[in-house]
Amino acid sequence: xxxxxxxxxxxxxxxxxxxxxxxxxxxxxxxxxxxxxxxxxxxxxxxxxxxxxxxxxxxxxxxxxxxxxxxxxxxxxxxxxxxxxxxxxxxxxxxxxxxxxxxxxxxxxxxxxxxxxxxxxxxxxxxxxxxxxxxxxxxxxxxxxxxxxxxxxxxxxxxxxxxxxxxxxxxxxxxxxxxxxxxxxxxxxxxxxxxxxxxxxxxxxxxxxxxxxxxxxxxxxxxxxxxxxxxxxxxxxxxxxxxxxxxxxxxxxxxxxxxxxxxxxxxxxxxxx
Length: 273
Hints:
GO molecular function: serine-type peptidase activity
Number of domains: 1
CATH class: Alpha Beta
Oligomer: single chain
Distance between the termini: 36 Å
CATH architecture: Alpha-Beta Complex
Protein name: Signal peptide peptidase SppA
Shape: elongated
Radius of gyration: 21 Å
CATH topology: 2-enoyl-CoA Hydratase, Chain A, domain 1
GO biological process, one term: proteolysis
């Protein structure tokens, strides 16, 4: 993918915005954008995060890419209205983090959900015959409850993912694992509380984060602007109005339904009230 670019932007700060749930499409866009930041040799990156989190693997890939880029580019993350769970995780890839005092953040933990429709299926007289190669091949099947061994297997999976999350936060924020575990129990907290816990470095707006990134890059904050790397719209989306015809609330609801269906049975770094 070729991003629009002019030489004069080398003295500007790149800006990438992360909004909504983190999944495959978000990961693809961000990895392409981060590659462009490196190739075009932007001196600094402002990473604006407004996300409740998302899938574990996608969050980890974004974090790893940010961590690699940090060797060449100054990165400052700005937590917006909400930066929770997987949003926190990718923020750990930044060199510094700024949050608003009222930012909703935290929710450090893992969740895995499945649907059990066994009673409903019994009521309407529907049953399934399953042929499987092993006792756990249909784990989290929607037509039956979990067995105790299955619960143990899934809990071990969740615990491993949780340890990865805690270890990353501890290393990124120079905290001990025990310190992180003391507040990494799924709770949410404000930006002010996050500062006190050591999750963020400063309180401030996105503009404050932009100025800090400029200073770190040796640029004049008063004369340095951001060049936003936006996700290009497909030709089809430009021709067809699609979801732009519906209300934002309805469109967001459709996005959530799609996300829930596609991630059922997957461990998630996600906060959803």
